[in-house]
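can u pls check wat happens w/ pyridoxal-5'-phosphate
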Amino acid sequence: MIYNINKVREDFPILGREVYGKPLVYLDNGATTQKPRVVVDAMVDEYYSVNANVHRGVHFLSQQATELHEASRETVRRFINARSTNEVIFTRGTTESVNLLASSFGDGFMREGDEVIISTMEHHSNIVPWQLQAARRGIAIKVIPMNDQGELLLDEYEKLFSERTKLVSITHVSNVLGTINPVRQMITMAHEHGVPVLVDGAQGVPHAAVDVQDLDADFYAFSGHKVYGPTGVGVLYGKEEWLDRLPPYQGGGEMIQTVTFEKTTFNELPFKFEAGTPDYVATTALARALDYVTALGMDNIALHEHELTQYAMNRLREIPGMRLIGEAEHKSSVVSFLVGDIHHFDMGTLLDRLGIAVRTGHHCAQPLMQRLGIEGTVRASFGLYNTKEEVDILVAGVERVSRMF
Ligand code: PLP
């Protein structure tokens, strides 16, 4: 064991509860992760003993809240190895990060006939914002195809570039297939065409160390709640040279330098992109979550989850009628499957009765479902606290449900 999993599980009070009189087996970490005590305690402590609006007050509490908020930005910077805290913009989550960039990049750099490249395996939050831009500006969306294992076809990707390509926006890890895309190579390829890249890291950041400089990503988005932090906070990383050139997203307090009724000048980075009161309590708690996973070691978490995923796939494969969906060579801790013609919803509902929380449905990736020719899947997604025993309970549950049909 890489870290003491029993001790780690004690840090997450919710893992001790029962549902329907059965111990909870929480395998829906792709949707959201559970929170360790240090994260919730940080929020309670801040509300009880510090709470004041940030960046605005001369008074003691406001300064203390501001220090906590800005220290959190530094924690995020270190965690993803950004060059500067100017490159760390706090948002509500991955969805808002992608919308911010689509809107701002669209305003700044996209005209009718320009093109954006995305992939077959994108979450709706990395499809619809581009469709909104397409409707507004007449830009075109091109889609990287994939093979049946769930791997993107890089030769086809290369062919999609044209003189009108303005941006590539791709997921680091598929939330359905678990595929870890070769984003570093894909970024190099885009840069050879002079095209910047946004990486949707919602499923990347929680499962392995991410170094935005090593990836050479121009933009990288992730959500706090998927990496053991609170809901309502996320990050958009952007290279300073890009963020400097991009117009603001929303207008309001904090993002300005001076305002007259005739003209407004904008604040410096990163505040130019942070209109209004941020969720400063959540940013503090996000920093505690990042400290928590850092203390366990991202490499240890990756190794533990890799072992669990391999074990789960091998055991599930033994079940008659099992169809695993997503068998990429490089795969994160997501296992999607269907058994015979059992509807994914029936499987999920019956597993729930056994205390096993899995996800069912299209997982906000309907175009991917269309490519696979299915309506949905059952998805088990593992986190740092899941155990082999829990995988055994899942496998026994799937076997039991399969026998019922
Ligand atoms: N991108 C991917 C790959 C996801 O899995 C998710 C959430 O499931 C999102 C984006 C959206 O994240 P959020 O709802 O936290 O904004």
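The two ends are 37 Å apart (CA to CA).
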